[in-house]
Amino acid sequence: MRWYIARLGNIGKFGVGLFVLALILLFAAVVPQREALQQLITKVETMQRLQTDVAGPLKLDDNQALQAFYDFFPRSDSSPYWVSELDKIAKQRGVELSSSDYRLVAEQNSKLARYEIQLPLQGSYPQIRGFIADALRAIPALALIDITFKREAIQAGRLDVRLGMHLYLKVD
């Protein structure tokens, strides 16, 4: 045994030591956590089964379903937050935002208001496309209404884009 250990050299001894340490870590930390995870999964499945058995499937009447629909939309006083989110997404994507136009349109006797947003942007096509995708993903109540592309020359890598978006907000 001493002969094999002597043949390993310093790097080999270090490797064997790391291997032994990995085995100790496996049996001391990973295996017990795997068992705890399996117990939690079993507990969740049991609770879901009991809830389905007791309550049955969730059924909403028309008024409850309509209220759940309206509850999906953000409140009208949260519009500054959503505008700042658009600005943050533009910075993350490297898109330049120029002076934007915002207008709140509230229909009479409606529970939803429409926040009309006109965004003039500058950037490359992939940046603009990524901005639109990220914005629609981050703000589910946002809708892309229109888009206009303009490029000075075919060789130009930057586009001038004007986006029309509507942010739907719940009126309290």
Q: Topology, pairings included?
A:
Blueprint: H1 2-55, H2 62-72, H3 79-93, E1 96-97, E2 101-106, E3 112-123, H4 125-138, E4 142-150, E5 159-170
Antiparallel strand pairs: 1-3, 2-3, 3-5, 4-5
Helix pairs in contact: 3-4
Provide a compact summary of the structure.
The chain is α+β, with helices and mostly antiparallel strands and 172 residues long. The protein is built from 4 helices and 5 strands, in the order H-H-H-E-E-E-H-E-E.
List keywords for this structure.
single chain; 24% strand; 172 residues; 4 helices; five-stranded antiparallel beta sheet
Summarize the structure in words.
There is one protein chain. This protein is an alpha+beta fold. It is built from 4 helices and 5 strands; from the N terminus they run αααβββαββ. Strands 1, 2, 3, 4 and 5 form a 5-stranded antiparallel beta sheet that branches. A hairpin with a 5-residue loop joins strand 2 (101-106) and strand 3 (112-123). The longest helix is centred in the first third of the chain and has 54 residues, at 2-55.
Number of strands: 5
Low-pLDDT segments: none
Radius of gyration: 29 Å
The share of residues in extended strands comes to 15-25%
Global structural class: alpha+beta
Q: Gap between N and C termini, in Å?
A: 80 Å
Q: What is the 3D shape?
A: flat
Along the chain, the helix and strand elements come as HHHEEEHEE
Q: Compute the number of helices.
A: 4
Biggest sheet character = 5 strands, antiparallel
Kindly report the average pLDDT value.
86
Helical fraction equals 40-55%
